[in-house]
Amino acid sequence: MASIDIEETTSDSITARVVDLDSSYARNDRTLEWYLDNVWQHSRALSAGISQSPAYTFTGLDSNRTYTVAANITIATTGQVVKLRATVTTDPPPRVKPDPWTWDGSNGGDASGAQVRNARDALLNNGEVSDFHHNVWNDLVNKTYEALIYFYSDWSDAYLTINRTRMTDSDTTLTALRFNSLRNNIGGLSSTGMADKERGDPVLGEDFFTLTSALNRRL
Question: Among 61, 110, 179, 200, fewest CB within 10 Å belongs to which?
Fold first, then answer.
């Protein structure tokens, strides 16, 4: 009995063919139509005497999503339609290793290159806290999270959740808990050699450079 054989899946494609066709069928009157989630995708004539169809690849799909693949074979001389179905899930998105953290420009997040450089200069020159934009802090938190995911880990809530570690427009205070939360998660990737900050302890510029150096040792 004919069936759909899924030959390959990727994060954005499914390749399938129909197998176990009747190879003794001698007429060239069959048409194969492919559907994805009940939407027509492709049709082709089937030659006589074949046991399987050519492969067809559905492209441009979402990763880690389940689709219904259907193949309808219509025999023109009789009007008979053979309907085949298969449920297929595409692969998860490929893991992409994050780029190392840079203090020289944008890290691909919300902080602009100018904001990152201003933050760097403030840390180097004991500048104004206002020069260290909270977007830079959040980008560093997010970069750490991306690295954790890449290395099959996750954010540790031992101090704070990732959402509470991030800052907001109305809450830009670098508390000891926020700093310790980031330090702890970077330390899960590469030792920082740093102890916890207690409430009221100063956070020095070199502390940030120590954190980003530890993070970059894994990236």
Answer: 200
**Domains of the chain: which residue ranges?**
3-89, 113-218
Residues 64, 52: Cα–Cα separation, whole Å: 28
> What is the maximal distance between C-alpha atoms in the chain?
86
pTM confidence score? 0.66
> Over the stretch 182-218, which tens digit does the pLDDT of each residue have?
999 999 999 999 999 999 998 889 999 999 999 999 9
Please list, in sequence order, all residues whose beta carbon lies within 8 angstroms of the beta carbon of residue 80, skipping any fewer than 6 positions away. Answer: 74
Q: Positive or negative, the Cα torsion across 130, 175, 198, 192?
A: negative
Q: Please, which residues have CB within 8 angstroms of residue 11's CB and are 6 or more apart in sequence?
A: 63, 64, 90, 91, 92, 93, 94
Q: Top-level CATH class of 3-89?
A: mainly beta
Encode pLDDT of 73-125 as tens digits: 999 999 999 999 999 999 998 888 999 999 999 999 999 999 999 999 999 98
